[in-house]
Write a structure and sequence with these properties.
The protein contains eleven helices and seven strands. It has 273 residues and is α/β, with parallel strands linked by helices. The longest helix is centred in the middle third of the chain and has 17 residues.
Length: 273
């Protein structure tokens, strides 16, 4: 008997996530469709433009969670840590960890304090962080809010209500969005494109253009129009470009074989590069 093959999603979204108070302005979403071996980007916009969203974090994240749920047969890449190092996880499984997360950590600051206390002040990394060369520990000062709000406001309701599937910790299901952990910095390091591109100077703009030209050939990637491509290069914060890179990483994840069986991945999460 031939094994059952699940059709891969044809729609891809890359989300440059933020846990800041003005998350609606900082989060960008790039959306595209798979056309053969190419990802064609059709839109790139701020999350504050989603229905029911806004600049403030709470309405924005609620709208983003609704947006993800509505992407029934899509792949969505999110750039925040989906878990913690094994030494800090008290749950027996990743799903249990996510379900218990809001009750265990009442605020982002209490989350970071608990992690630092449990690790004696050392910033531990997951196995996948070391392998994919992510810049920070999940509870690093520059990342802990992103980790906290990403798990609490996005992954928790999705896992609790069985509204999505998150590989490799969960089985893939047709008709549900597939959620991948993506790290734009790791993708740029892999392709030797990790150099400064966030800023308003002409040097930074040229760096964004250079990165985009390179990934257009590597992925390959195309845009529905030159104006959309120009907008990505023009964004001085580099967040629009990060969402494009996240979409590219998600597209890559769909085409690569499943990661090898690893108990660390099953509990801590896995970064697709």
């Amino acid at each position: 008997m031939r094994p059952h093959v699940i059709a891969r999603p044809r729609t891809v979204h890359g989300v440059d996530f933020s846990g800041a108070v003005d998350a609606g302005r900082r989060i960008w979403i790039a959306s595209g469709v798979v056309e053969g071996s190419t990802l064609r980007v059709e839109a790139c916009r701020r999350a504050e433009g989603l229905p029911g969203s806004g600049r403030d974090r709470d309405p924005c994240l609620a709208a983003l969670q609704k947006f993800v749920v509505e992407q029934h047969a899509s792949a969505v890449g999110l750039d925040f840590p989906f878990g913690l190092p094994r030494a800090l996880v008290k749950a027996r499984s990743w799903e249990e960890f996510v379900r218990s997360f809001p009750g265990r950590y009442a605020s982002p600051d209490k989350f970071r304090a608990a992690c630092r206390h449990a690790s004696d002040g050392v910033e531990l990394r997951r196995v996948t962080d070391r392998e994919s060369r992510t810049p920070f520990s999940p509870y690093n000062l520059r990342l802990y809010r992103q980790t906290y709000f990403g798990i609490r406001e996005l992954l928790h309701p999705l896992v609790r209500e069985h509204l999505a599937c998150v590989p490799p910790m969960q089985r893939l299901h047709p008709g549900r969005p597939w959620i991948f952990e993506i790290c734009p910095a790791s993708l740029l390091k892999r392709d030797q494109l990790y150099f400064p591109y966030k800023g308003r100077s002409e040097t930074h703009r040229e760096a964004r253009a250079r990165i985009l030209r390179r990934i257009e050939k590597l992925i390959p990637l195309s845009f529905t129009g030159e104006a959309l491509r120009a907008d990505v290069i023009r964004d001085p914060g580099g967040d629009a470009l990060d969402s494009i890179i996240a979409a590219c990483g998600t597209f890559r994840a769909l085409r690569q074989p499943a990661p090898r069986a690893n108990s660390a991945y099953a509990l801590e999460g896995y970064v697709y590069v």
